[in-house]
Amino acid sequence: MKEKKKRLNGDIRADRVQVIHDEEWNLWEMSLSEALSKAREQELDVMEMWKKDNITLVKIIDYGKYLYRQKKQQQKQQQKWKSPDMKTIRITYKIGDHDIDVKKKQVEKFAADGHPLKVSLMLRWRENHYGELAAKKIDSFVDDIAEWYTPHAPVKRSGNVFNVMLKVKK
To answer: What is the C-alpha separation between 92 and 122, in angstroms, rounded?
Structure first.
């Protein structure tokens, strides 16, 4: 949803306006030309806040600061809603003990950053005959990283790939 652009200074179409100052919050009524001259004296801008019937509410502000604050507030909102990326660890049927330790260190880093994790084990060629052993291998890996992650769902096999989704322990 795109925000309507606010009218500034000479773009405002009204004879009399209600004025709010950025710092004082005092409300008074005057002609638009008076409001513009007061704003120029202070090197500020007059911005139309809203218009209803014959009443136009304007605010004397520093428009550059206003835009800067709006941009920062928007960035903050985007950061709030940004979810952590899903990380994937791939292990193989023939993985060695040292390689398992390296994968565990990676998992520990992912958990520290709060990323959800997907562990996958792919069987190739003749390894497809050892599906039960592969399931045990991925289960043992999940048990090894149980300090940081809990399974979101049980291990699933689709074709020659075993997958398990994990979430960070809190």
So the answer is: 6
Task: Name the nearest CA neighbour of 89 among 127, 113, 116, 114.
Answer: 116
Ranges of each domain in the chain? 9-80, 87-168
Residues linked to residue 61 through DSSP beta bridges, in sequence order: 45
**Tens digit of each residue's pLDDT (9 = 90 or more) over 143-169:** 888 888 888 888 888 888 888 888 888
Fold for the domain defined by 9-80: Ubiquitin-like (UB roll) (3.10.20)
What residues form DSSP beta bridges with 57? 18, 50
What is the dihedral angle through the alpha carbons of 68, 74, 80, 84, rounded to the nearest 10 degrees? -100
Calculate the alpha carbon distances from 35 to 49, 96, 127 in Å. 14, 77, 81
- Predicted pLDDT at 1: 43
Confidence at residue 125, expressed as pLDDT on a 0 to 100 scale: 82
Instruction: Give the architecture-level CATH label for domain 87-168.
Output: 2-Layer Sandwich (3.30)
**125-137, pLDDT tens digit by residue?**
887 777 778 888 8
